[in-house]
Structures are given as C-alpha cells and as structure tokens.
Amino acid sequence: MQKYWGILVAIVLLASCKEEETTKTEVATIAAIEKPVTLEYGFNLDNFTVEQDTVRNGDSFGELMLQNKVDYPKIAKVSEQFKDTFDVRRIMVGKPYVILKSKDTTASAQVFIYENDRINYTVVDFRDTVLAYKDKKAVKYVEREASGVITSSLSEAILDQGIDYNVTNNLSEVYAWTVDFFRLQKGDRFKVIYKEKYINDTVYAGAGPIEAAYFEHNGTPFYAFGYEADSLTIMKDYYDEKANNLRRTFLRAPVKFSRISSRYNLKRRIRYYGYKVRPHKGTDYAAPIGTPILATANGTVSESTRRGGNGKYVKIRHNGTYSTQYLHMKKQNVKKGDFVQQGEVIGWIGMTGNTGGPHVCYRFWKNGRQVDPLREKLPAAEPLAEVLRPDYFKFVNPLKLQLDCINYPEPPKEEELLTLNE
Questions:
Q1: What is the model's pLDDT at position 18?
Q2: Burial tier of 225 (Cβ tally within 10 Å: 0-12, 13-18, 19+)
C-alpha cells in the first residue's frame, strides 16, 4: 500500500511542477506582450538606434547627414524643396536634435528630428520618398492663479510668488498701452490667471498667454481679458470689463520691459559740448545688444538705411499724421516699402552711430513735428464690435468673478522682516 501511495504522491508533484512551468510560461508570454512601446515624436524608438545631441559650432545639416550615411541627393532635396518647412541654413547652435538610425550594419540615418523649441519640432524623414514636416509634442495645460503686491519692481513681485518670469513680460505686454511700467508705485498690485504648459504631464514647458488679469496702478484698477475677435493680428487683443480695447494705435515703448536711459528733452545740456543746449528729441531705451526692436504701430517702412550719427535705423510712416524712427540698430529686419504690423520685430538693439551704450533712440513725429510720445494722448484702437459684445460678456463674467475672489499674499510678519534684515 505504501508503494502505491508513494507513486501517487510522485504523480501529483509531477503534475504540480508541470502546472507551475505552464503558469511561468504564460506569465512570461503576457509580460512580453505587455512590454510598453517607446513612442516619441510619432515614432516607435524601439525600431531604431537613437542618437541624441545638440548642434555645435561648425555643424551643418549637410555634414551631419553625410556623417550618418545619408546620400547627397537626398540632402540636396531637403535643402531645395523644403525651404519653407526646414531651412537647413538656419539650424542654431545649442538646439537639440535626434537621429533615428537603422538597426542593420549600415546604421544609416532614417529620420532627423530638430527641436525648434521645447514643444515644436521638425521631422526630416529619409525613408522611401524624402519628406519634411513640422509637429509638436502633446502638451497639458494647467490653470494657475497668482497675485502680488509691488514693493520694488514687478519682476521681483512675480518671482516672490514663485511665478515663471515670463509672466512678467506677458503682463507688460497686456498693459503695454495703459500702465507705465517705468513708473510703478510701491503698493501697486496685480492678479493674474494663466496656464502652465507641461510635456508628458510632468516636464514644465513654460507659461502660456495670460487669460485674465487685474492691475491696480496708482489706485486705478485695470481689468484685462484675452479675447480673439480678430485672428489676423500678431498681438492678441485684451479688453476691459466694459469691452473697451486696452490696445492703443501705438505701443508705449519699442522694446519689451526695458528702461528709459534718456528722455525727450528740448533743454538738455551736455558737459562735453560746454553745457550748451543740445535738444534731445528722442526717448532712449537701454537694453542689451541683440534685444528685438518692435514696430510701435502698423505702417509702411519709409527708410531702412545707415546715416551719420543715427547709425543703422528704420523709419515708419503710420498714416498722414504719425511717423516713428528707431536709431542705432545692430541690424535691420525690414527694408524700404515693407508693411509692418504693431509688435513686429524690425531690428535689434546695437551701438551704431553716435552712442555711448547699447540702446534704441525712439523718435516720434506728429504732423511733421517731433514730439514726446510719452506725453501724447495716443488714439485708442477700435472697441469690440457691438455684435460680439453679448458673447464677450458671457465669456468674461466668470473670469472677472474668479479674479475678484483671488486673495493677495499676506505681507511678511515683523519677526520675518527682522530675520531678513539680519
């Protein structure tokens, strides 16, 4: 009896082992099936050998591709037929790129991916027919509220709240026509609603445009709500709680968030010239070399040249009443006869002509006479059309309520101030 019992146990154990082996095989098969696919830029990266790098000094698209075994005719086709999509002459030092290579012995480049910025990229596909196209990474937008009270500067108030510095520039653009950011007062305060951008849910990609804002300057409140009534303009329009356009026909300044180094002054005296009266009929905005200079209003370029103490400059005729001029450029970005829109880059800050430092001298003509633009009551842009107002108010009323409910940060307590002063 014992003998049969032993055989029975052996059979059970053997069956159990086989069942366990079967289970392990099934688990392994399932694990193989469920292995995640590495998808990026719209490609399964597991199908390629991936090389990541950045453009370096001396790199060119042609040389990079030749080094990675792409035939010259394909390279020539990209440079000749896809200029509007990917200008091979304009790849910039420091920009990341990815090369997807074949996994065979040739290891030749199949796809080249150039990152224009953290979100947008350009793909050059060499497989079969050469193809180039633009695309963007999936972006998640997260709404954020912020507020602050100005004690020294707007940028400091922004950074104190842990807000992206770009929000400073965005706010200055929203209120470019209504708030003089060169004369902010202690106690001025703001509230803002905007969206933060994230790639793959976790990688921060910057702050999006401001959706709604409140700015209190010298005790005067200014609401601003982003509303796209016209998709043809370069700069997004913002309207107040009564549907009045915050934009004016002219920007207050031709550079973003710069500082005034010299104002319009007809009685200016300079020691170098023996303190004789030397009128300064422009407003100087100091900024680093290479800072973009913006057209302050729509118009036609009447001059784009270099002359004497003016250095390289651009002059724009806006209408029969107004003209503007921008001096001492490093380089112009427009030519005579070009039509430019408000906010368009027309050149870059430089030091050409008579200048002691990098800046743009901004000159403003009204009816053929140079005037101080900071003292001019500039005409307002067209208000929102009556037919659009019902939809506008329906859109902004919840945003206004949301702004009104945002609290300002608590001022630091006395003991915290003592700690900061030590």
A1: 53
A2: buried
Residue type at 124 in one-letter notation: V
In 106-258, the DSSP E strands lie at: 109-115, 120-125, 131-136, 139-149, 189-199, 203-217, 220-226, 238-239
CA 333/CA 319 separation, integer angstroms: 21
Looking at residue 350, its amino acid is G
Q: Is the pLDDT of residue 420 over 50?
A: no
Name the nearest CA neighbour of 366 among 320, 299, 310, 300: 320
Q: What is the distance between the alpha carbons of residues 125 and 70, in angstroms, rounded to a whole number?
A: 11
For the stretch 320-324, contacts whose Cβ atoms lie closer than 8 Å and that sit 24 or more positions apart, written own/partner, are: 321/366, 321/367, 322/249, 322/250, 322/297, 322/364, 322/365, 322/366, 323/299, 323/364, 323/365, 324/250, 324/254, 324/295, 324/296, 324/297, 324/299, 324/362, 324/363, 324/364, 324/365
Tell me which residue of 109, 107, 50, 52 sits closest to 78, measured CA to CA: 109
| Residue 289 CA, distance from chain mean position | 19
Distance from C-alpha of 324 to C-alpha of 363, rounded to nearest angstrom: 6
β-bridge mates for residue 190, sequence order: 148, 215
End-to-end Cα separation, the chain, in angstroms: 93
- Kindly report, residue by residue over 69-105, the tens digit of the pLDDT: 999 999 999 999 998 899 988 899 999 999 999 999 9
Q: Could you read off the pLDDT of 360-370 as tens digits, one per residue?
A: 999 999 988 99
Q: How many CB atoms lie within 10 A of CB 100?
A: 24
Distances (CA, A) of 346 to 90, 296, 331, 377: 19, 10, 9, 24
Confidence of residue 138 (pLDDT cuts 50, 70, 90): confident
CA distances from 151 to 167, 189, 401 (A): 17, 9, 26
DSSP letters spanning 374-407: GGS-PPBPPPPPGGGHHHHHHHHHHHHHHHHTPP
> What does the alpha-carbon distance between residue 319 and residue 307 come to, in Å, rounded to a whole number?
24
pTM, whole model, 2 decimals? 0.61
Dihedral angle, C-alpha 103, 108, 114, 115, nearest 10 °: 20
| pLDDT score recorded for residue 168 | 84
CB 68 within 8 A of CB 124: no
